[in-house]
Design brief:
With about 210 residues, this protein is an alpha/beta fold. It has a single domain (about 1-210), classed as P-loop containing nucleotide triphosphate hydrolases (Rossmann fold). Helices cover about 55% and strands about 10% of the residues. The N and C termini lie close together (about 10 Å).
């Protein structure tokens, strides 16, 4: 199985690319979905977050209100680091388990969609990184149109993340997405076909390779 680590900045179109790859037959592991699961009541993350940040981050039902928690750590870099130290390793373990389950099911291609793939040091979970990029100007326009942000708010969010150039140093494939959805679909189609040819050339793993994995 090949695991693609799919990443990109806000407004890049990363999620659309993930959907296109799923349409082609890839299995999806979503860091967003795993992140929500990690905060559920009864989990180790839940207990540690409440102990670290107080019960005022809980909603009326006793679950973690991620918006309240976000407000609490947004302007406090040290608090964000403490939160990330709790959540990111737990998510890595959960995603690794999902990937292993897909491998056991003889899945050919898995896509790990994670905006924080690089920042959270989840790179070891992927065999290769595919990066979706959009110019800051295009990403800003998309955020204004899709999320109702002001241009200033959109620019601030973009600036708070890694730049495209910083991400590119980790990427085996770069998908530039400043154009139309049709152009993006064509690029994904090309990459998928190339991937299938690589898989066909590699053939099934030998017994020894299977044991190593």
């Amino acid at each position: 199985m090949i695991t693609i680590g799919l990443t990109g900045g806000i407004g890049s179109g990363k999620t659309i690319v993930a959907e296109m790859l799923v349409e082609k037959g890839a299995a999806l592991v979503s860091a967003d979905v795993v992140g929500h699961r990690s905060y559920r009541r009864g989990t180790a993350v839940y207990e540690r977050v409440v102990a670290e940040f107080g019960r005022d981050v809980l909603d009326a039902d006793g679950g973690i209100d991620r918006q309240r928690l976000g407000q609490k750590v947004f302007a406090d870099a040290e608090a964000r680091e403490r939160l990330n130290a709790i959540v990111w390793p737990a998510m890595a373990r959960m995603m690794a388990q999902e990937i292993e389950e897909l491998r056991a099911q003889k899945t050919a291609v898995a896509v790990l969609e994670a905006a924080l793939l690089i920042e959270a040091n989840w790179l070891p979970l992927a065999d290769e990184v595919w990066l979706v990029t959009a110019s800051p100007e295009v990403a800003q326009q998309r955020l204004v149109e899709s999320k109702g942000l002001t241009p200033e708010q959109a620019e601030a969010r973009i600036r708070s993340q890694l730049s495209n150039e910083e991400r590119k140093s980790h990427a085996a494939v770069v998908i530039e997405n400043d154009g139309t959805i049709e152009a993006l679909r064509k690029r994904v189609e090309e990459l998928w076909n190339q991937l299938q040819r690589r898989i066909a050339r590699a053939g099934p793993p030998t017994r020894r390779e299977s044991e190593v994995k």
